[in-house]
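name: query_chain
kind: protein
chains: 1
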Amino acid sequence: MRKAIAVLCGCLAASAATASLALEPGQRVENFRLLDHLGASHELYYLSDAKAVVLMVQGNGCPIVRNALPTLKALRERYAARGVEFLLINASLQDDRDAVVKEAAEFSIDFPILKDETQLIGESLGIERTADVFVIDPKTWKLAYRGPIDDRLSYGAQKPTATHNYLADALNDVLDGKPARLAKADAPGCLVDLPELEQRAAHARISYAETIAPLATLSLRCARTWACVPSMPDRLPTPLPPRR
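structure:
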């Protein structure tokens, strides 16, 4: 019984350690390779000659992504001569490759859209919403900025022009060898469902003090008395009478 409780506690500790996977500015982005919607292979660390890598989360049907694409294209043209690479990533389970190809054709998306079919890259990046942008510095492969392109778009509304150009500011800072003046901002976008990540996060929210420790104590009582003590009737079945 003690061994079983120890294994349970160990599993929960491991879940807590792995559940917080959201990548934060300053953390290293691990290498990955994905196929884009047209079947071409893209490896992150192959872009070591780039001055910066921009990766935006795409999802079919998301109006914020669709409205952000013209601005992203303008930024690509603006920074092309300075060696900045632009990519999109789709980690949505409901968007198969054929559907992404159709979306790209309908909305003239000429960026490579990396299809994360297993959601492993989405989990490692901690993707939560579409239109979230990651700026990666190839000199260190660390995340320099995470957030929206600018503040023009929000849920159900948009401004004629942006007041804060977060992505452009971050790129200027990275290209100048400086830390981004604003390393993180909340990105409005459509939710991306990552069921495995959400399950691990739910496990991590289990309190040792409130849940595991009482169970451990109860198991010891059961072992000593040959029956479960009815101290947690709302969580346990009806206790058995002591064995004689």
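note: The first helix runs from residue 2 to 19.
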